[in-house]
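User: Could you check the structure of this?
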Amino acid sequence: MRSFGRMLVLAVVVLACAIPAFSQEEKAGAAPAAEMAAMSKDIAIYGEVRSVNASSGSLTVIYYDEESYEEKTIDLVTDKATKIESAPALSGIREGDWVDATYTTKDGKNVATLIKLETEEEEAETPETAPAEMPEEE
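Assistant: Sure, the predicted structure tokens are below.
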């Protein structure tokens, strides 16, 4: 009977040590998956184009980061999946233009998924820029 008691105590000790080890492996395996999900998330910015290199498919944009309350500069690269709106191609975007851009981080690069050139026609259509109507006096 003593032998059975010792075996039981030994089994409990082994299991007590093994359970935390298994739970740590699960957490370690889950962390890279969470990081990958966060990295594949699209990020949207609005800013002024500082430079465009159509031959390398890249552009630099200055934008205001609302989380840090700072003006930041970002280099974006394009690929075959990048959609460009309101311009025929990346070469149609010039320094000083304003763009809405959506990008994701892949292999340490900020890859644009959408670049939309803001045009003056679009700006004129917004109600914020329209003059306020004055009521007529009788």
